Amino acid sequence: MSICCIADPEWASYTLGVFVCHSCSALHRNIAQISKVKSLLLDPLLREQWIRAKYEREEFLCVAKQEPYSAGYREGFLWKRGRDNGQYLSRKFILSEREGVLKYFNKHDAREPKAIMKINSVNATFQPTKIGTAHGLQITYLKDNSTRNIFVYHEDGKEMVDWFNAIRAARFHYLQVAFPGASISDLLPKLTRNYIKEGYMQKTGPKHTEGFKKRWFTMDDRRLMYFKDPLDAYARGEVFIGSKENSYTVLAGLPSSIQGYHWQFGITIVTPDRKFLFACETEEDQKSWIAAFQTVINKPMLPQEYAVEAYFKHKP
Hints:
This protein is of the alpha+beta class. It has helices at residues 22-29, 44-55, 128-131, 157-178, 184-187, 283-297, 303-313; strands at residues 11-13, 18-20, 37-39, 73-81, 88-96, 101-105, 115-118, 123-126, 137-143, 146-153, 197-203, 213-220, 223-227, 237-240, 249-252, 265-270, 275-280. A hairpin with a 6-residue loop joins strand 4 (73-81) and strand 5.
């Protein structure tokens, strides 16, 4: 119960060590110099580490014991999945808020990083089931305006949560500079995001005469990506899903002339340029995907999303 006597509170102050309701969390955010709050409706690993921080590490009793999530710099080693061979190897990672990047090195003593990820496009989400380890984290960033996936984990759950929080803190400080007039409540949803939906569907090609192939799909905001394998580093293709005001529509079923699909529950996405055809294994999957697409299509497009749409239209 929260200190305001609300059952099942959704927020907690990790500096004062108390639970608060959603309404009170807004008040606590206005006194950030005294109280800092976090949502409890997060991954179970985050819940576990919050409890450990309070009762085992006693971070709430002494400011000096608190982890430097927002220190602006973090360095350490994580197990990273190889892009081609799928092996997990120890790699050195550095998060530098001053440089505005997250980077990793293939060798422990390497001077030049293997990859540089700009904070403005980095996202992180816990994916224990997909990765196959309790502390698995999927990091994505844009490389040449295409999504690159990196899968990492650490044996210590606290270490992985610390990296997740450090990325969120760096994103928060970047967004404060990028959107100086925005309120904290407006920025919080932009720190990191979970995918709208993931799962298998079948797809055909642009001519609609190609055979349907089973692919793993990820709906990340307005980007619908498909992969041959869920742990692929790069998508085989990406589709931009705009808004209904811009002539984007999702329909149940496939055109009557279409053949070659094995799964019977079709979906047609209509865009200004072409139709994308998919097939689901079950009616439940079909309804779930249609609901996910409809959620995105019903949202008006933001000004910056028009630039992304234009890139997809002229993509080679």
